[in-house]
Each structure stands twice: as C-alpha cells, then as structure tokens.
Amino acid sequence: MTSALHAVIFDFDGVIADSEPLHFRAFQQALAEDGLELTSKEYFARYLGYDDVGMFQAFAEDHGVPMDAPRVSALVSRKGIKLQAMLHAGAVLFPGAVDFVKTAASAVPIAIASGALRHEIQEVIEAAGVAHLFAAIVASGDTPESKPSPAPYRLAFERLQEATGATLDPRRCVAIEDSRWGLESARGAGLRCVAVTNSYPADELTGAELVVSGLQGLTLDALDRLCGAGAAGTT
Fold this sequence. Notes:
The chain has nine helices and seven strands.
C-alpha cells in the first residue's frame, strides 16, 4: 500500500468506459419502440445516474406512463440488446483509462462500483486485458438500491476487504466518479471522492474533493495526498 491511499473504487460508465452516449441511445431506442421519447438533455440532466431498472421506473413516474415489473424487464432486455450491438461496433475506453487502472492496481486493491450490467462491464474490461486486476465488481442488481444510495459503494468496500483480507479505512479509499449521483453514493459510504469531467463540468460535480479532466490527468500521488491531508482542489 502507499503511505495513505488504501484502495481505489472506480465507477465504470463515464470513468473507465466512454459508454454514457451509448447508454443514452440504447435507452432512447428502447423507449421509442413503445412510442416514448427520451431527449439527450433530459437523459443527462435527470437519468444518467440510474441503473437500467431505476431509469425506466423514474422515466415512467416522470411521464405518467404505466410501468409494471414485466414491462420494465422487457425494456431492460431490449435496451441491453441495443447496447451490445453498439459496444461491439468499436472501442469505448477513455484515453488513459487502462494505464491508470494498471498503475492503481500495482499499488493498491481496486474495485468497480457501477450501475451497469455485470456482463457489460466484464466484456469491456476483459477485452482491455484488465479484468484480472479488479478484486471486486459491484454491478446492477447486486444491491437493493442503486446510486445515489450508498449501497453500491458500501458493498464494493466490503468485498474489497473480503478479497484482500486487509483492514481498509474508508477515509483512505477513493471513489472515482463522473456524476453527482455517484458522488453522493460514495460520500454516503464514507469514501473520499474524486470526479472526472467526462460527463459534466466541474461546477456540477458537487461533493468532489478533487476534480480532474479524466484518468489520464490523475496520479497516485494526488490520491495519496488527498487521503493523507484531506485536501480539496481542481486540476
């Protein structure tokens, strides 16, 4: 371990994988087949932080659309098929993501806490050759509540401790997020918070103790200083 940093827990979509635009298009296409419209502005302002089930439920509530469990399941399945087709069409990793994941894993235990489906995460990180580096992955459906609930990050933290056999201090573990919903989730779990501006500008990432342009602009030294001194800042 480094002197202060104990572990890093990554969000997936919007941090490691540049898949948020693909998720939007998949949601949009799935809803369009039922005659329902989802705009880009609405998605990024309201729904980006949800997992698939939560997104369709929130959309239904907002728009007064009847949405029982079978309809939600059908939409989730439809959306997943459309997303897979787009994921297979080309690379979706952010610049510098693989290098930083490898660097972090060489120093501390790392995990993923995401609202994405497990097989979507696995396919991307296996193709990138980094799947074996993650000691734990929390995906959609692993917790009763999704982000902004702290449940996903709490479970990722617990699984990291179990996998490593180490006693980790949550205030020395860093969550890396791209949305305010994710930051709220990480804060609720007692973790330190770093944000990347891949999806939102810095002024909308409230709650982050450090804001960077992306993983290519982040260093372990910066995380170590954050955990050691509790400093906040923007780079």
